[in-house]
Amino acid sequence: MKPGLRINRFQVDGFGHFRGYSGTPGPGLTLLYGPNEAGKSTLLAFLRGVLFGFEKRGQPERYEPEGALFGGELWLETASGPLVVHRHGGKRASEGTLTVRGPEGQPLPETLLDQALADVPRELFFEVFAFRLDELSSFQRLAQQRGVSEALFAAGMQGARRLPEAVERLRKDAEGLYAPRGQKPELNRVMKELEDVQQALREAGDRPALYFSTRDRLAERIAEGHALEVARKHVERELDHAARLESALGDLAVLARDRAELATLPVLDTFPPGAETRLEDVLQRRKTYRAQQAQLHERLTPIDEARERLAAPWPVRERAESLRMALATYSGHSEQLRALPARRAALTSRRRQLEQSLEELGLAVDAGGLLALDLGARARGELESLAGRLDAANAALAQAEAEQTRTREERARLETALGRVQAEVEALPEERPAQVRQRQAALGRMRAVRGDLERLAEQRLEQRRQMDGVRAPTDAVPLRSLLPLSWVVAAAGVAMGFAVLAAWVANVTVGMLCAVGGMMLVGLLLLVRHRVETARHASLEAQAARHRWRQQEEERFRSVQAAMCAREELLQRELLHASGAAGLSPGASLADLAAQESLLAELLTQAERRELLLREEDTLRTAWDVAVREDQRVEEARLRADQREDLLREEWRAFLVARRFPEALSAASALTLWRDAAALRQRLLDLRTDEEEFTVAEAACDAVTARLLQEARAAGLPPGPAETVAARVSVALEEVRSRAADQRHLDGQRGELLAEKARLDQLVLDEDQAWDALLAEGGCQDEATFRRRAVQARRYAELTARVREHGQRVQALTGMGENMAREEVHAAGGDPGLKEQLATLRERHQTEGERHKAVLTEQGSLKTQLSQWENDDRVSRLRIQEETLRAKAAELATRYAADRVTLALLGRARRRFEEEQQPRVIQLASELFSELTAGRYRRVFIPAGDARELRVSDGARDWSAEQLSRGTREQLFLAFRLAVIRDFGETRGALPLITDDVLVNFDPERARGAVRLFARLAEHHQVIAFTCHPWLREHFEAEGAHVLELPGAAKPPREGAQPLRVVSSG
Amino acid sequence: MRFSFVHAADLHLDTPFRGVATHGPLLERFQQSTFHALARIVDVCLRERVTFLLLAGDLFDVKDRSVRARLALRTELARLDHAGIQTFIVHGNHDPLSGDSGTLGLPASVKVFGPEWEDVEVRREGRGLCHVQGVSYPDVEVRENLSARFRRTGEHFSVGLLHANLGGDAGHANYAPCTAADLAAGGLDYWALGHVHTRAEHLLPGGGVAVYPGNPQGRHVHETGERGCVVVDVEDGVARRRFVPVDRVRWHRLDVPLAGVTSLDMLQAVATEVVESRCAEDFDGHAVRLTLAGRGPLHRELTRPGARAQLETDLRERLARAHPPVLLESLKDGSRPEVDLEAVRAGGGFLGTLLDEAQALSHDDAALASLWDDEDLTTLGQRLKRLGVDALEAPRPELVAQAGQRGVEQLHEEAP
Fold first, then answer.
1. pLDDT in tens, A352-408
2. Residue A164 Cα, gap to closest chain B Cα (Å)
């Protein structure tokens, strides 16, 4: 049996009508007895809820109290140690908030609870391990719930306990790989991609065939292009020739006309070119130059007159430099001159104010005396230092006095507290907590040891029963031989005797026959003896083997018994020791133990309180000593501060007298007076400096004014006040500067005009000479002749140039001379014939050009296509994709097929297994159901096939569960559940069985049998049963159940922890 | 007279490679590898100054529809033409004459045998050197024993060039089937065969030899190891053969032992070490299939959903960065939990029944067929066949045995 889970205690904080209920179920069979509405179903729901989460809101089994704490705790014993599972309802999760802690309160992971529950699903636990009467008869639902059903049936299949999970995993894997009508599974996607790729390949077509046919077409187009190119070039040449002749037709006509006119003119090759223009230019320039000479003379005359006016004599101009210096000096002092009266009045006013302030200051000194006083920074520093020290001494004195008051109050408070603690300590008993705890631990050990002793006694009893069974007498085997050999020898002798007797009585033949018959009988006797001896030897060997086994078993039992005796002795010694330590006799009753427990708990509380008070008294006494020492120290400090304050006050008075200050001044007043006197002294010093500066400025201003007046007089300016004279001098100097500027301007203008006049004179002379040279060049004497010959020469030159130009153009256009071109035109039929030929050629050229262009375009297109195919790896990529997808699809399909085959194989194996070997759960259920029905039914089985139903058989015929009466059907389902629980306990973990009045439909005999099965199951599993029926309670009590009585519904529960009342204990 | 020639076959130019991503740096190396192999065969011809080159069919695959394959063939054979080396070609089932091979426009020195048997005399300096006989496949499927058409025509060294399945190799379609006796009956000195991609030599009764050079470039994970052509030196009628590898990308199937490997990082390191130890540096690239083999503590971790796929992705990225780059074709999980099947069978219970049932099924064709007769599997098999995938054509007994083992592993693993 694997360790599982046991509920040692439950604490209901709030669930249904329960508030603060607690209970301690026993480790084996426990009955919770109570009338209707006592809360049995509520407690069942509580236990299920704390372990697996509360029901959803709105469900009747949620039992959430209104306005109270919802939930509670379970103290569990598990394979990994004790756990305290705490679950309370919250606003968020309907199942409540789960907390798992250790016995010391340390938090533990929630997975420990799952492990303790052997990872049993919630549905399976509710259906099999903790169920009500209505759930007992719901096996069909249990069977229909796929997960539970699979888990139940697989639980009995050796080696296939996780078959449902494996089947589900395979099914999911297969569905994830492929779905017949799906799109998302991997194989579906791969096949879709493969179809797309193959479609793309089909669309790409047979690329090499296309390539080669395209290449052939390209070769044809290239040949065609070459032929078209040759024909086009021939037409181009003809067209070019005809076009050139046509373009020369106009030039040929002009040439003929110009040559006729040229013949009418004299030869004028040497007449100067551009003669008329040159003549007009010379005449025009001569006229312009002369007009400019007249304008220049008119501009020179007024300039000469102005220069004479400015050259007349003037005294101011001669003394201009002296006047400018004097005026500059005066202007520099003008501001100072204007400010002198105001400064004088201000100085006078400040002196009067200072004298008045000195009188108001209160010092017995005049202005001179004040200036003589030492009011410097060092002296002021001394004053401030002295005042500061005086203030510090006063503050220290006040602080010392306040601290003295505080320490005296603290001392009085400590004395009061010390008195209170001492009084309380005297009222408590003198007992130490450690001693009390030792006694408590001894009491706990005593309880545990007594429990161990009881279990040991049960085990010894069981061992003794088994030993008695081993010692039971067996069939005795005769030790001696049943047919001794002497009997055979005697029989042979008798036979031989008879033979001799027969030979003697009858004849030899009869004697021989008798002898043969006798020997045959002896042989037969020997054969029988051999068989009997062989059987006897076999029995003797079997008996010896049983004897040896019995001896081994007895030896084993004896060793176990010895170990148990030793263990019992140890436990007895420990019980004696523990009871002595707990202050009880070893045989003390449970009531004595409980009374001693509560007494020790109270004593522990008092001892702990006394220890706490003693520690507090020590603390207070130490604090009081400290307070006394502090008071003495504060008194000494106050006396020192008083002496220091007196010394400083005397020093202060001496300092004030030495500075002519009133000696009764306080520190603040003295500092204020000092500051005012120092400020007044500084103001007096500033006034004296300002007065000296004013006197120097006044003398400088007088000297500057006198010099300005003197210079003005010397320059002939009229006298007057200094400022008027200064203005006049300024005006006169400005006028001097203006006249000098005018003079310079006039000189510059005159020089420029004289240079222009000389240049014009030279130009007029040059033009006269050019006129004479032009007439001589044209071979003429006068202007009229010159003009007439010039017109004729111009026409001659024009005609000559045109004839030459048109001749060259005909040559350039046709590549032939003028005469040859005329002949070609004539041969072509003249102008109309040539134009007609040209139109024909142009039409041919255009047609062939378009055809050639089309061929070239097609060539380019074909080349591009070929080049693209030569370098395009799209088909190659598609083929790679196709092959890769095929490989992938094959792999996925194989995996899918493997999953499907594995699923099918598991199904076949399962059917075969169920046909050949009923699961262990069913075998167990058969045994239990047979026992429950007192042998009425012998076998429970599951028929082969997919139907999940239980059938029962009496050996002759079988029935389905629906065909049974309600009570028998419930017994069948109970037997099945007990079988599952036993099998689960052996393979995964022993979980408790909790039932809520599930035996009420059983007749008394079968109910007693069911309780017996519960009691047997309770040897390894915790079993908690609820009932309200007294007759069932009697059955449970008869099986030694630990009975807890629930309070009646009519009696409301009181607040606070209330343990259930123990009525009897098994 | 002494002379030599080169024998190659099954070039499969521009063949698609399985498991290579259609984008990325590895694609170019793999796509060019068949072209590089052909170029190296031509280099061998030029270096060895051979008299002629024999190409025994399947130069390319018609269904690949590759223009580049045709152009590359023409370009490389033009190099031989410039060097005065003849080329003899027969077409096989992948490039039959019914395809577009007639329009290749090959150089004049290239002799492509037609659908009828022909015999060509190779001459040097005005004297006969040897005879080369050959016949091409007119169409894809040739079930006739073409070797029966060959016969000795003269006293010179005689070579038969043929694309055929000698001895009915199960791994290849049984086209132009023939036996060693059939070939020996022709009386030729050297049979230059193609079609079987694995290099092999068959000594024939009477002194001749039939040679499969194998394909010059492995194309998938079932074509591992070195690949190339055969150089044949003939002197006094005796042919000495030398194999010359020409592949530039090599395929490998490697086992990664799981014993002692305790973490996925360690497994990656072990796998990388195995790959590096087997992948030489003087190649353009390598392609590997790794199989996790043996039993080890990592088996449970590897059976976690997505674990193996993630490991495969990580390893693929890691190996692709190697020098030369390595393509991880796939990572197979061949690891096994520590289950003793015989012990399980002997232990009985459901697992024993499961193994018994699997064994019984794998020997019972009717039961196997009924197990396979699943509507979904049938529909899927038909759809896959339409797509050219023959994965589910027939019931496969080995799947049943594997299913039994797998069931035991899953159930046994979870057992307490």
1. 888 888 888 777 777 777 777 777 778 888 888 888 888 888 888 888 888 888 888
2. 10
Q: Under 8 Å CB-to-CB from A960, ≥6 apart: which residues?
A: A949, A950, A951
Q: What's the CA gap between A1012 and B339, in Å, rounded?
A: 43
Q: Which domains does chain B have, with CATH numbers?
A: 3-245 (3.60.21.10), 249-335 (no CATH), 341-414 (no CATH)
* A423 located within any domain: yes
| Model confidence band, residue B261 (pLDDT cutoffs 50, 70, 90) | confident
Contact assignment for A161 to B403 by CB distance below 8 Å: no
What CA–CA distance (Å, rounded) separates A150 from A146? 6
Contact partners, residue B291, CB within 8 Å, separation at least 6:
B253, B254, B255, B256, B331, B332, B333, B334
Tell me, what's the pLDDT at A1064?
Answer: 43
A429 and A549, same structural domain? yes
* A99-108 residue pLDDT tens: 999 888 888 8
Q: What is the ipTM of this complex?
A: 0.82
Query: Within 13 Å and on the Cβ side, how many CA atoms surround A221?
Result: 19
Tokens at residue A621, please? 């006494």
Out of A201, A205, A876, whose CB is closest to B31?
A: A876
Q: Which of A71-75, A281-285, B151-155, B250-254 has the weakest average pLDDT?
A: A281-285
Mutate to test the interface with A, among B354, B362, B409 (most CBs of A within 10 A): B354
| pLDDT value for B416 | 36
What H or E segment, with its residue span, contains residue B118?
Answer: strand B118-124
Angle at A174 between CA A170 and CA A180, to 5 degrees: 150
- Under the banding of pLDDT at 50, 70 and 90, the label for residue A1061 is very low
Phi then psi for B244, rounded to 5 degrees?
A: -120, 115
Please name the amino acid found at residue B54: L
- Which regions of A889-935 does DSSP assign to beta strands (E)? none
Sequence length of chain B is 416
Q: Is the CB of A201 inside 8 Å of chain B's CB atoms?
A: yes
Length of chain A in terms of residues written: 1066
C-alpha dist (Å) from residue A1 to A160, A611, A984, A994, B409: 19, 49, 9, 19, 26
Q: How far is B215 from chain A (nearest CA, A)?
A: 19
* A226, A843, A872 from A865: Cα distances, Å: 21, 34, 10
Q: What pLDDT, in 10s, does the model give residues B5-39?
A: 999 999 999 888 877 776 677 788 888 899 999 99
Is A128 part of a structural domain of the chain? no
pLDDT at B228: 96
**Nearest partner of A678 among A359, A377, A352, judged by Cα:** A377
**Could you tell me if A486 and A529 lie in one domain?**
yes
Task: Give a yes or no: residue A500 inside a domain.
Answer: yes
Closest of A705, A700, A734, A731 to residue A326, by C-alpha: A705
User: Are residue A161 and residue A294 in the same domain, yes or no?
Assistant: no
User: At A54, phi and psi to the nearest 5?
Assistant: -70, 160
Angle at B77 between CA B74 and CA B81, to 5 degrees: 125
Question: Are residues B347 and A159, on separate chains, in Cβ contact within 8 Å?
Answer: yes
pLDDT above 70 as % of chain A: 93
* pLDDT attached to residue A473: 57
Task: Write out A685-747 in H/E/C secondary structure.
Answer: HHHHHHHHHHHHHHHHHHHHHHHHHHHHHHCCCCCCCHHHHHHHHHHHHHHHHHHHHHHHHHH
Task: Retrieve residue A40's tokens.
Answer: 């049995």
Per the structure, the count of domains in chain A is 5
Burial (CB count <10 Å: 0-12, 13-18, 19+), residue A472 = exposed
Residue A185 belongs to some domain of the structure: yes
Residue span of the structural domain in which A693 resides: 320-373+666-714
Q: What is the pLDDT of residue B203?
A: 93
Read off the pLDDT band of A872 (50, 70, 90).
confident
